[in-house]
Amino acid sequence: MAAKIRKGDKVVVITGRDKGRGGEVIEVRPAEGRALVRGIHMVKRHQKQSASQEGGIVSKEGAVHLSNLAIADPKDGKPTRVGFKMAGEKKIRFAKRSGVEIDGR
């Protein structure tokens, strides 16, 4: 099945502690059904010092389950479902809320 959420998409968190906040998808992990979103679900991690990086406690994004994310409608930024349609030989995603194409990859 085609991916509804991809790297680079603008998404909105629909449930959980960051409900209503949005961000850009950094990474998608399809095997786990999770994604990393910039600035969402920030967690503290203890990091050992290395030659290239300083040690200490660092904040980084934690993985969010895909069911807790919705694509942000390109028209108004509100959460929307994703539909698929064929444009010639290409399968494209569109926002069900407004009918606007999400991206013509």
Topology:
Layout: E1 10-13, E2 22-29, E3 34-37, E4 42-47, E5 56-61, E6 63-65, E7 69-72, E8 79-80, E9 82-87, E10 90-95, E11 101-103
Antiparallel strand pairs: 1-2, 1-7, 2-3, 3-6, 4-5, 7-8, 9-10, 10-11
Task: Describe what you observe in this structure.
This protein is elongated. The chain has no helices and 11 strands. The strands form 3 sheets. The chain has a 6-stranded antiparallel sheet with strand order 6-3-2-1-7-8, with no helix packed on it. The model has no long low-confidence stretch (mean pLDDT 92). The chain has a domain at 10-74: Roll (SH3 type barrels), CATH 2.30.30. 0% of the residues lie in helices and 50% in strands. It has strands at residues 10-13, 22-29, 34-37, 42-47, 56-61, 63-65, 69-72, 79-80, 82-87, 90-95, 101-103.
Q: Counting H and I runs of at least 4 residues, what is the number of helices?
A: 0
Query: Strands of the largest sheet, in order across it?
Result: 6-3-2-1-7-8
Q: How many strands in all?
A: 11
Radius of gyration: 16 Å
Summarize the structure.
The protein has strands at 10-13, 22-29, 34-37, 42-47, 56-61, 63-65, 69-72, 79-80, 82-87, 90-95, 101-103.
Tags for this entry?
105 residues, mainly beta, SH3 type barrels, six-stranded antiparallel β-sheet, three-stranded antiparallel β-sheet
